[in-house]
Amino acid sequence: MNDIETRVDAVRRFSRFYTKRIGLLSDGFLGSEYSLTEARVIYELAQSEAQSPTGLASELELDPGYVSRVVKRFERRGLVAREPSPDDGRKVVLRLTALGRTAFDELATGSRAQIQQLLSSTDEEGQRRVIDAMQTVEGQLSGEPRRPIVTYRAHRPGDFGWIVERHGAIYHESHGWDATFEAMVAGIAKEFLERFDPAWERSWIAEVDGRRAGNIALVRRSKTVGQLRLLFVESWARGLGIGTRLVSECVGQARHVGYRKMVLFTVAGLDPARRLYEAEGFRLTEETPGHSWGKDHIAQTWELKL
Amino acid sequence: MNDIETRVDAVRRFSRFYTKRIGLLSDGFLGSEYSLTEARVIYELAQSEAQSPTGLASELELDPGYVSRVVKRFERRGLVAREPSPDDGRKVVLRLTALGRTAFDELATGSRAQIQQLLSSTDEEGQRRVIDAMQTVEGQLSGEPRRPIVTYRAHRPGDFGWIVERHGAIYHESHGWDATFEAMVAGIAKEFLERFDPAWERSWIAEVDGRRAGNIALVRRSKTVGQLRLLFVESWARGLGIGTRLVSECVGQARHVGYRKMVLFTVAGLDPARRLYEAEGFRLTEETPGHSWGKDHIAQTWELKL
DNA sequence: GGAAACTACTTGCCTGTAGCAAGCATGTGT
DNA sequence: ACACATGCTTGCTACAGGCAAGTAGTTTCC
Known about the structure:
homodimer, 306 residues, DNA-binding
């Protein structure tokens, strides 16, 4: 599923599947005494405390004339009550009566029963996956890109494994570094977790909408020197200021616990990271050519007086 | 989203969202000269080489009478050709004409364009996730549970990070082991990746439908002794024989490269794993009480003569 | 072999859904 | 005060699509 056409066809396939599956269900409405549109009207009225015919029409994308008739029908049946709007003589305020609410409850119960039947084709774990997947679809397609929520927290069990994984996979993919790089990161993770001292050290995991998106760690090298390690931001999370924030959190904490200096080790050529270091005031103090992780590198040391 | 009612409501919510989003699109059909049902008929005819009116009716769940009329309309317009069925005088065989196929192509193009527009509300990564999620939904709800496909492969960059993560997270959750356990696993990963010798060592990653589900590693301890390490199967992948297969692959490979003995170290109380070791012929040779990862344990050594 | 039952399709009839446009009443801007 | 916009209603209309009766073939069963 790489090119756009394949993806489009996949979506078409799903749409056909889902509308068919759901279409069967909504035929169930015919079983009740309301048409699908009538049911939608009732549903809409039940949702919003006070609704006007125009509101209904635009919300459900129906012709106002038709809505008018539906409402009239419902009124005759005692399902909705209408009153003139207090602030606008043209407007009408619609409200479900107790009877209308009963009708809604019946509809909702029926619909729930059918969805439940639909869900029953898989087990509880499967149902959770389905819902999770649906939320993914909705989240992605809901149009408004809904500004992502970025949060920062300390590491938890599993996080350092994740850091190792992402470093290993991404630097392999983008720079061709071999498994010894992943080994090195695993070594750093081991050390950090083993000797972790919360008084002097700290790590941050950045999450975007609850999904891990980046990290950084502050490690003690000596009483006066803190080391910045394992900075990393997922490519899909770029542009949210996560890198900047991680570096500044890290440096801020280093100041806070009383280090006099920060160091970090990296290699030449990782420009986005370089920019972050420079912006925070780090200075390149040493460069040594070398060979590691299956490639030639220029190892760099950066320092920052606090 | 724990109880069934919450889940049902989540699905209802999604259905409303999706049908609304897709409903807008299918209005596009009105833009064309075909109604939605007509479009479905054309689509169905395009899919199946030769179709009968009855077939259409049952496939699309329409009234045969109505189908008859739609077909007649299409015939007049030159979109479909009909011939009497050779083997049954009552039957009719319908086929799209070249003109009909053109109509289908136009419809498909239009529909694709609209789906593409729908998809364009997210980036490429998002689109992939959407499709993935849709396949999950369809897979789960399509009724036939579609047996999962299990595959086994050697490790790739990132895999050992994943192994560290899963060990760290899961043993913390289920047994309350602290971060030093994750540190230890990270140490094992580091060692393995650093000194990996394909002549004597190997790892297996089990994937279920392309998703990592478990792993095992064979590590050289000496010329004659191989060690089984890092056995792990995700809880959602239990019952597929993955654990058994991993252990037997590992032992088989150990035999193959010529070790005389296998060892493995574990702690008492991990019963599912224990059963796998026993089934493969491992014998418990040593038990030592101790304390690690924030808990008391009985460390165990298991051995197997090859 | 032939009546009875069944299947595939057609056609006439009818209802419900829903859009369009004209009309009326109330509001708003100049 | 006038024009114009907004909210709602109502008459007209088209179309979708179900139901049932009818025709022509096919299968079943005696």
